[in-house]
Design brief:
five-stranded antiparallel beta sheet, Methylamine Dehydrogenase, Chain H, six-stranded antiparallel beta sheet, about 10% helix, mainly beta, globular, binds cobalt (II) ion
Amino acid sequence: MANEFAIGFDNLEQETIDQELHVDSGHLPPWLRGSLIRTGPTLFRLAQQSYQHWFDGLAMLQKFAFDDGKARYTGRFLRSPDYVKSSRTGLVSSDEFVSVPSRGPLERLFTLVDPERQFGRNGMVNVLKLNDSCYIAMTENPLAVQFNPADAATVGAFDYPDDLHSVLNMITTAHPRYDVARKSIYNFVSRLIPLRPRYVVYRLDNGSTRRTVVGEIETDALAYMHSFGMSENYIVLAEFPLVTHPTSLFFMPLFGTPYIKSYTWKAQRGTRFRVMDKRDGKLVGTWEHDALFAFHHVHAQEVGDELFVDLSVYEGGPAVIDQFYLARLRAAGGGEISYSGLRRYRLPLRGGSLRGGSLRGDSVREERLAEPMLEMPQFNYRRCSNGSYRYIYGVSFTAPGKFVDQLVKIDLQKNENRFWHEDGCYPGEPVFVPRTAGTAAGDAGAEDDGVNISVVLDTRRRRSFLLLLDASTFEEMARLDLPHAIPFMLHGQFYAGVL
Ligand code: CO
């Protein structure tokens, strides 16, 4: 028997094209004009083979367009090469996070010598606007899929037209960060050179699709990093001790090793905070701390002589990765996930001989910023990304042992939390949209003047609804019925003015 929210890990095979949504209760704010576009896995079972992990399934784009107090919904499969091939054969076609195609001995050898065969192109983690005419869906390799935000239809494969496009640079994050002041998008790739692995930080300037290298950070082992932090002047990579080596990655297809299984937890390495100056691409320093694991950097900011690095840290370390196997998520009593909480790591930036060097021991101070379990963190990015922030929103659980069953708003200044919870309901990432979205008044108004939009799975009715919370009070503002259950998605972005 499965648990009640297992329907959130079932196939969604139904596409929906531009359907007007009924406002069940409340009202949509009249100023809300634009689209929330989300991506995530919605096909977990193929005709001949099933995916094994939540981060494996074939992507669908979900678009919620708001205008004039009304909302319209479109859900369309991302017609990626993986989708096209897998829906034709009914088989896993490329290496995903865990699932791998069953390859015969010859095919394994072919894949070894032609690594392009190995990597999937299935943008199920996040979406990104590169410029007005280029929106892409991303995963944790740079092979992206372009889509049209007007109708969520797939345009085709997208590769960055630059020198970084190489099989040596096949690991990245689906969490690029936008520098509001510089109008540049930052991200990094892990470079798989066996003798000198490194992280290559790049930026995309002002709507360009070509990546410019900012700088490189050498390492002895590549860490699994789902995201990174960025302050006004610095990029911070938290090298968790879940590490691999380029050689292991190269030999994966030979042994049929799942991607994430090529990483090993080496707690004794501890965590290494690697800080790069965005202005000259130089390594400012490396700060070491105890072993920890997180998917999401929440925020980073420069305060006096310190860099504050805020993470949503898992108490059980990388065990959470195993908790997201589909069999476990669906099983009766399953869906238990580790606690993750908001932690701040204070790195002393100014320190004489530190440049290029490394500081050990107690130089990093850790603070517990808030108690509630927190994942899928959100804040008023446009206003606060280059400075301090007060409010964080995210998904949470009501008690240890539960799957995420509530939303939380954390007030760092008052040290208090507000929650939204309803029995039998499982909410997704509460995307924050400021009232000033789409206007020139970037810093006007209160930091929490806006709405949070979340897709909530209602297991009592076996379907999902769209929930809008007033971000200030965290009270329900509107609820809109969706035509079916939507599986648990990953990330989405709000694009003002896109209808
Ligand atoms: Co993420």
